[in-house]
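Hello,

I think I submitted the copper (II) ion job twice by accident. Can you confirm which output corresponds to this input? Input:
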Amino acid sequence: MEKSRSKLMITALSVFVMISGAYFVFSDDIHAQLEETIFVTHTGAVISTTGEVLDPIYTSANMEFDPMEYLRDFDYGDVSTLPDGTTLREYTIIAEDDGVMEVAPGIFYNAWTYNGSVPGPTIRATEGDIIRINFINNGSKEHTMHFHGIHPAEMDGVFEPVGGNGGRFTYEFAAGPVGVHPYHCHIMPLEEHIIHGLYGVFIVDPKEGRAPADEMVMVLNGLDMDFDGENNFYAANTIPFYYQHHPIQINTDELVRIYVVNMVEFDPINNLHLHGNLYEYYPTGTDLVPSFYTDMITLSQTERGIIEFEYQFPGNYLFHAHKVEFSEKGWVGIFQVNENEDKKTEDVDYGS
Ligand SMILES: [Cu+2]
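Support: Only one job matched these inputs. Its output is below.
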């Protein structure tokens, strides 16, 4: 009798512990689910919801971005010659922060842009050219342009915030050093201004030039759709999976040169793996002699370089992050290597 009573008490006690445990586990979830968020949309409407907030899903898409066009598009500016013979390259860059871009079917991103795209235009010059940028901030927040490279402090785009609604600033400096550099907004909170899209690529060519090549720009970027400090998608040039669905056409026996810049925030590293080949790698592009011959580079925030390769055999070859999570969330593409009719040599029968 005594034995069965204590057994009953133990059973009752364990049921109580289980139920209370379950309450503590589930009550947090329930409260989290019921938490209301109130916010103002870009159209001025006040929305209250207990659901997950994507910013903003209710305005229409108003941005066009073609990753294939961006890939090989270099902006040399309006060119003139100064009295001392130096080349002057002038640009007008307009910042905005109310863009909405459909980055995947039905998935909209609140993009902040330089000249209406993410990334902004690829600014290209020869070492020693004078770069003059007429910067206009048509956004609602303060923005700047901060270039990586060598220039005076007041041209660094950090301590001179440019006010929204038409604020202006003229950045002027000599292009240098030779290489590939990022530019981006440098207003705090920096992560927010970068993750929304205010960045681009600045290429400084050596005076003697580089060997002729099929040249491209790849900005490796992440998209934090719900702005919780974690990326939901990854890409080369903004649109997840774009170059997998639209393979980049290149030719056998033709030099390909890619200016690669890693702008992924939040994740400490990114990387780039090429299939069926290896490439010469020039870190930051500052040297004309490659540092590595590899099929894998690892890049931290704003780390960049130039990769060069030629394909011997035609066919489809993947390139992607070997951080598999990133490739499965969009950072993957294909080079479709076509037989180079100009350089076609004797056919060799491999593998038979
Ligand atoms: Cu900004």
